Amino acid sequence: MDRHKRKPLDPGVSEREADLCSSVLSLLLTSLQCLLFSICASVPFLPLQYVTFILQVNIILTVLTLLAFILPFYVFLHCRELAKQRENSQSILEDSIQETSMYS
Fold first, then answer.
1. d(CA 64, CA 66)
2. Cβ atoms within 10 Å of 21's Cβ, excluding its own
3. Domain limits of the chain?
4. Do 25 and 3 touch, CB atoms closer than 8 A?
5. How many other β-carbons are positioned within 10 Å of the β-carbon of residue 68?
6. Is the pTM of this model over 0.85?
7. For 71-88, what is each residue's pLDDT tens digit?
8. Is the dihedral of CA 88, 91, 95, 101 positive or negative?
9. Per-residue DSSP letters for 36-87?
10. What is the mean pLDDT of residues 86-97?
11. How much of the chain exceeds pLDDT 90, in percent?
12. Membrane-spanning residues where (predicted)?
């Protein structure tokens, strides 16, 4: 969350949106870590499988692994949707300003 603290926020972007967008990188790294865990678990090298077996907890790990892949994609889509909404609201505001200036 500290990636954007030193940078000024873009116009129309709230602090919450900036936090959400800056979390994409950490979520992506978590997904890659889960992928590496899965690869290590499937490699037919016994000492490596022992390590992954010790790290494996139960079915919750499988659910968390799936969530780790879904969540970054969802955050990316959500940030993109917020940006579109912001652009639409600005264009509507500009159109209404132009419309009112035509009648003045």
1. 5
2. 20
3. 15-103
4. yes
5. 19
6. no
7. 788 888 888 898 888 888
8. positive
9. HHHHHHHSS-HHHHHHHHHH--SHHHHHHHHHHHHHHHHHHHHHHHHHHHHH
10. 81
11. 0
12. 20-47, 53-77
89: number of Cβ within 10 Å: 11
Q: How far is CA 48 from CA 25, 35, 75, 100, in A?
A: 27, 15, 33, 70
Residue with tokens 């690869």: 39
Tokens 């659910």 locate to 63
For 99, the token pair is 């419309």
Q: Provide mean pLDDT across the span 42-57.
A: 78
With a CB cutoff of 8 Å and minimum separation 6, the contacts of 37 are 52, 55, 65
* Residue type (1 letter), 65: T
